[in-house]
Model the fold of this input.
Amino acid sequence: MRHYCAVHRHLFQDVYAWAGKVRRIRTGKDGAWFCYPEHIPGQLTTTFGKLKATGFLRGLAAGAFACAGASFLAELNAIHAFREGNGRTQTLFFAMLAEAAGHPMDLRRLQPDAMLDAMIRSFSGDEAALRKVIEGLMA
Done:
C-alpha cells in the first residue's frame, strides 16, 4: 500500500500538494460513488493484504495472472484512493507488479478507451473486458 501511494506521489508531486495522500472527500462518476474516504485505508489494507497472500501474483500462468490481475485492478478502481490520477497510478503500479510477477506489459499497446470501458464494466462486477485488456498488454 505504501508503494502504491509512493507511485502516485512520484507521478503527481509537481502538480498536487496532496500527491500520494489518500483522498478525504467523497467522489464518484456518472452516478456511481467510489469508496467513501473513511473506508479507504481499511479497503486498501484488505486489497493489498489479499495481493500479498497470493505472493503478489508470482508464479501464475498468463491466463491466471490476467484473471487475478483484473480482480485486483477492479478493487483498486472501486476504492479510487486519490482525488485525481487514479487510472494512471493504477496502470503504472500494475505494470510494475506484472513485471515483478514475470508478466511484463507493453503499455504502448494500451488503448485508453478500451481500458476505461473495462474499468467501468468491472465496477459492476464484470471483469472479463479488463482481463482481455491485461492479456493484450502482456508482452
In short: The chain has a mean pLDDT of 97.
